[in-house]
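In practice, a research group might receive sequence data for several interacting partners and want a quick structural hypothesis before committing to experiments. The following worked case mirrors that situation: the sequences arrive first, and a predicted assembly follows.
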Amino acid sequence: MAESTGKRTSKKDMNPALDRTARLLDLVPYLATHQGISIEELAREFSVSTSEITDDLNTLWMCGLPGYTALELMDLSFESGFVTISNADTLARPRTLDRNEALTLILGLETMLEADSSKQSALSEHISSLIEKISQCLDIARLIQAGTASSSAIRGEIDAAIGSRMPIQIEYHSLARDEVSIRVVHPLEFISLANPSSHEYLYAFCEHSQGYRTFRIDRILRTLDAQGLGHYSIQKTVTVEPTINTMVVAIASRERDVAERFNLSPQNLRADSKKEVTIESFTPDWAIREIMSFGGEVALKSPPDLRESLRQRSMRALSGYI
Amino acid sequence: MASRKSERLVNLTIALLATRRYLTKSEIFRSIDGYEGELSSMERMFERDKDDLRNLGILIDVRGVDPGFEDEPGYRIHPDTYSLNLGELTGTEIALLSLAAEAWRGAALGESAHSALIKLRSLGIASDFDALPNLSPKVQVNSTSFVPLTRAIGDRSTVTFTYRSAQLNDETRVVNPYGLGSRKGNWYLVGEDQDRKALRTFRLDRIVGGADIISKPGTFQTDPDFHVLTFLDSHLFEPRDVAQLRIRRGRGHALRGEATTLSSDEQFDLCELPYADDERFVDSILWHGDDVIVLRPVALREKVISRLRSLVDSHG
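A structural hypothesis for the assembly, expressed as tokens:
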């Protein structure tokens, strides 16, 4: 079905000889600025095996200007396990960025721009001018754009804390309770769940709740200085197993929204003609809020006590208008 | 043989880059290592090699060598089109670019980000992180349609994909893709829907599976002034109205970011908040239960009241 247009195919569609040619051309400028690099490190950098990289070096050794005598050939030495190159001036500059390469850099830079342009303005200006520069390599820069994501700085602070094994203070907006609190956490790793609109989470030991918790990155409002809190001192590893609450809801319309918010598989939702499905939630409070946001299009069927609590909350909300 | 072929392509590239004048085919066949055999097979080989280099993004310039002999074209590669030229880059800029590439680890274009990084490192400029705050950007793209869509946008090719409708039906769409943009954590495709004959936006996480390119490059034209984020902002996110709300103190954090507080009493803050989409805004007000009360506009207030009544009814 997909017609081959023969233009700038993605790396995976490339045939092996082209793939290899690209690598050979890119090896020369890399070696020229990394004289004496070990074969192992070179292989790692180019994400290939050491035998493949050795084959590459053996091939490059046969390449050069017409004539192909010692005067014209590139001079490579790597018998010692460390690579040096000379007589390779023609290829010494790296190749220009292809469309996808330029695109990754531009989109990556765009996510670093502060959402609030008044903050870090010097840095943002610097990033913007760099985006301009790279855009010269890309004919479609205005057609594909990432919005700003203010999480870059927050992720940066957390990343540094993971690296130094230091606790960090975060100001966190808990959706379940609609509450902002400051917590001391020992960050362990970033995790991305596999669902399509996946948010990124931080997995950390939370001093406040004395257990391992996940925090949605976009709900971390800011990180605060945690100086003087000392190194990791996780002693208690009492993790309270989270209880999962299951509820049955009836869906009148907006099936896609329901599936997305409760992370339901569309197959299950479609199959059930009555549109009654079971949803799961760690906190009933969050589920009740989500159901309420559908304003009657989604009805909670069971358990009865939560149904009653939802009704009461709706009455209370309504009383604010009468 | 892959190895012989790569060797010939590298030698061809070197020769065409190094030459200061255009080389004719016969000069190429005579002097560049790897061209051998019958003239006709060398000709075919050369045609394929030219295509291959073009696929690698290497531009071969062709020109008649002698105006008197039109049938004898010459070939060369201009060093400025071949090599990366971003002007002077500082160590801080290299550091920022490295971070930008690292942001793709594990994401759709991770391989391209990696090869971009190798090219940047080949410039031999040491990266300098000292002037930068801790930054760790992350590009969140999980849709398998992302890569084919970027290619179709660049080539101006028509695509087809399966889209999940609001009723959860899988529908086939045929679209001329204009642009891709990300806002508030979601990626959107903007394009002309061929069946509906109108410009539409599609959320990438609602595209089921990938996207197939079904036409040649250059199938459609786009407005040269089209700017994807500007389009998304004006169609999806530009505030249409300003609401006046009472938000309980210490609550409603998701709304407070863009709200202006006019006054406060013991229990509530009186706030003004611009909003774009009626439906979404009503959802968000209902989510907050009795912590948020709409005062104005009246139509919005009426809508919230009727939804709350419906909630009470459906749980009675």
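Before designing any experiment, note the following. DSSP finds ten helices and twelve strands in chain A. The longest strand of chain A covers residues 179-192.
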